[in-house]
Amino acid sequence: MLAMTNPTRTTKKQITKTVGEIASEMEDIFSSDSDRYKFTEWPGTDSLERVIYGYFSGFVLFVAERVKERHLNTSGWQMVLPSRLTDYKPSDSNTAERLDVSLFLEDMHKEAAALKESDYADMFAIVEVKRRDSSAEINNALSRLFYYSQNIYINQLNRRFLWGLTIWGSHVRAEVMVHDKVLVSSTMDIRKAEGRKQLVSLLVHWSACSTERLGYDPSMRRRELTRVADFHGAIDKTIYDIDCYDDATGKTRTYTTIRTILEASCLFGRHTRTIIARPEDAIGDSSQEVVIKDAWAHYNANEDYMRNEIGLLRTVHETLKDRQLDFIYPKLEVGGTVKLNGATDDTTAAILNTLDKWETLKIPFRVHRRIVTTPVGHSMKVLADENELVIVLAEAMRCHQALVNDCGILHRDISLGNILVVGTGPNHDELHGLLIDLDSAIRTDGVERTAGAERSGTLPYMSIANLENLDMDRTALDDWESLLYVVCWVATYGVVSEDRRDPNDDIAIKLWNGDEAKAARAKRGHMHSSDVFEDDITKDFLPQYKLLKFLAEGLHKRLFLYPGCEGSRFNSTMDEDDPLLNLLKPSKNEKSLPSSDPLLKRSKYMNEIVSELSKYLALAEKVARAKLAN
User: Fold this and answer.
1) Mean pLDDT, residues 455-469
2) Cα–Cα distance between 545 and 552 in angstroms, integer?
3) pLDDT(454) > 60
4) What is the spatial distance between Cα 405 and Cα 586, in angstroms, rounded to a whole number?
C-alpha cells in the first residue's frame, strides 16, 4: 500500500529516517510510565468507540508534531492532522449521518493541532471506527467508509481517488478507493510495536506525498473559498482553476469554475462532473461561459480515436459548423486527456503503476478526459409550459437528425437530462433545444450496432430493444422511441414546478423506472395498442397538457402501429419465415431473426417511420409556436 505514495529516491531516504526516529521515540514512551500520551493506553476490543477516537487522534497528532520538527522547511512536506470534532456531522453534509474521525492536510507552518473546520470540502480521508474484532464489524466499517467517502467526491472537484482508514479495536487498515475497486492494506495492530511503526510509516508517507499520489488532481487548483447565498441560504463555494488540454493543438487553456451542474456522487464508476466555467482571463464576462465535462471513461486499446466522445464531437463540429444549426448541438472548444503536471496522461495506470503487478488486479483501464463545449444550456425546468417544451424537443431532434444523416452518428441516449434549453435574442426568449452528451453515441458507418454487454441509455427512457438487449441493430428508431418516453414522463409528472405530480402516486408509468426486465415487460404491454396506451399511460397525463397528449399519441402510432409491424408484443401466429421453418431451409450461416416480434419487423420500415415521426413532430412544433404567438 505504501508503494501508492511513490516517493522520490531522496524523499524515500528522508521518510525512512523520519519513520525510524518517530517509531523509536514512540516505543520509548510506551516503555515508560509516562501518562502524558493517552494513545499509550489504546484499548483492545469491546471498548467504547468514542474512547478509540481520542487515542487515534492523539497518535496522529504525535506523528504530525514530530514530522513538523524535522521537516518544517522541507519542500513538498505537509502535516496530516485529525479533526477536532469526533462523532460529528460535517456542515456541508446533506444528511444527518455522523463521522467518527476525519483527516486533513495542513501546511507545515501552521499549528500542529486538531483542526476545527471539519467539512467534506477540506477532508483528506475519513476514518471509520468499530469496537469489536469480528467479520461483521469489519464489513460494517468498510460499508460506512464507502458510504461517507462519496461525499468527498461530491464536495471536491479535484479528487481522482480516495484514501481511508478503518479501525476495529486496536486494529487499523488503510483503504485506497479507485474507480472500480478498493485496495486494502494488511492489518496494523497498535498494541504491537510492529503495528505502531506501520501506522507511523503510513502517516509519514502521506506527509511527504505529492498531491497526485494523495488522490488530488494537480490540473485543478483550488483558488479561493467564498461565502455565497442561494435559495438554500449561505453555503461554502469552492472555486477552481482547471487546465484543459487539447489533443488536437497540443495547447492548454485554463478556466475558472462558476458553478457545478453535476457532481461525481458515486464511489465507483466514471465520476462524471459537469461544470460551468469561464476563461481565467475573462472571469467577469458571462458571455464567454463554457461547459466542462470531466470524466474517467473506459479505454479500449483497439478504440479508434475518432470513435470516442472527443473524436465524435470534432466530427460534429466540422460537419455542422456551416449548417445554420447553432445552439442545438455542442461545439467542441477543447478536448483531450488530462495531463498530470502538464506531461503524463492521467489514467488508471498513472494511479496504480507503482504497485507490483497491478495489472493482475483485473481493474478496468480508464482514461481521464476533459471536454469543453459551448453553448451553455439549462434544465427544462426553466420552461414555462408545454408549448415551450415541444419547441425545445423539436429543436433537439432536429440536431439528432443532423447527427444521423450528416455526421453518421447515432446518439443512443435521448433523455430529459440530455436535452437542454438555450435562450437567445435580446430577452433570451428565442428557445432552442440543445442535444448533449455523446458518451453512448456510435458511428453508423459500417460499425456493428447490435447490443453489447453494456446497455446504453437512461431509465426510464430506454427503448424496449435496449432494455431487452435484443440481437438487432440499434437505429434512429430507438432514439425516437426514447423521445416518446420523455414526452410521456414529462406529461405525467409535469413541465414546471407548479404542475408537479406527487412522485408517490401509484400509476403505471412508474414501472418504467427500476428493474430493466420489468420495465421492458411493462413497455411491451403499454405500447401494444392505442387502447392500452390510452388506458395505461395517457389517461395519467396532467389535464392541462393537451398538446403533449396529441404528440404522444402521434409518436406512439407511428412507432408501434405502423402498417406491417403493428404492436409491441410477440404475435401468436406463425409467419412464413418463422425460425422453426428456417431450420428446414439450407443454412446460409446467417442469424435468423424471430420475425414474430414487431420490433424486429419495424426495422425494415425505419426510413419511412423516421420520416413520418419527423413530420409529426414538426407539425406539433408549428402548433406550439402558433399558440405562443397568440
Assistant:
1) 90
2) 11
3) no
4) 37
**pLDDT at residue 581, rounded to an integer:** 45
CB 241 within 8 A of CB 253: no
Strand partners, 296: 368
Q: How many CA atoms lie within 13 A of 78 on its CB side?
A: 14
Pairing of strands 220-230, 252-262: unpaired
Can you tell me which residue has the cell 478556466?
255
Quick one: pLDDT band at residue 362, thresholds 50, 70, 90? confident
Residue 249 has pLDDT above 50, yes or no: yes
Residue whose C-alpha cell is 502538464: 342
- Alpha carbons 308 and 564: distance in angstroms, whole number: 37
**616: its cell numbers:** 409529426
- Terminal CA-CA length for the chain: 68
Cβ neighbours for 148, distance < 8 A, ≥ 6 positions apart: 97, 99, 126, 128
Which has the minimum average pLDDT: 59-68, 300-309, 425-434? Answer: 300-309
Distances (CA, A) of 16 to 3, 193, 249, 547: 13, 16, 43, 73
Give this prediction's pTM: 0.89
- In whole angstroms, give the CA distance from residue 408 to residue 410: 7
Angle in degrees, 0-180, between the axes of helices 476-493 and 546-560, rounded to the nearest 10: 150
Q: Measure the CA angle with vertex 346, ends 375 and 341; round to 5°.
A: 90
pLDDT digits (tens, 9 = 90+) for 283-313: 889 899 999 999 999 887 666 555 689 999 9
* C-beta of residue 157 within 8 angstroms of C-beta of residue 219: no
What gap in Å lies between CA 294 and CA 300, rounded to an integer?
18
Q: What share of the chain is helix, strand, coil (3-state, %, to 5)?
A: 40, 20, 40
On whether the CB atoms of residues 215 and 161 are closer than 8 A, the answer is yes
| 3 state DSSP class of 34 | coil
> Residue 229: which H helix or E strand, with range?
strand 220-230
For 401, the grid coordinates are 437528425
DSSP code, position 567:
-
CA–CA separation, 104 and 83 (whole Å): 7
Sign, CA dihedral 104-106-108-114, equals negative
Under the banding of pLDDT at 50, 70 and 90, the label for residue 10 is confident
DSSP letter, residue 594: -
Q: What is the DSSP string of 402-432?
A: HHHHTT-EE-----GGGEEEEEESTTS-EEE
Which cell goes with 439?
Answer: 458518451
Nearest to 523 by CA among 472, 473, 485, 480: 485
- Bridge-based pairing state of the strands 220-230 and 419-424: unpaired
**CB atoms near residue 302 (< 10 Å):** 5
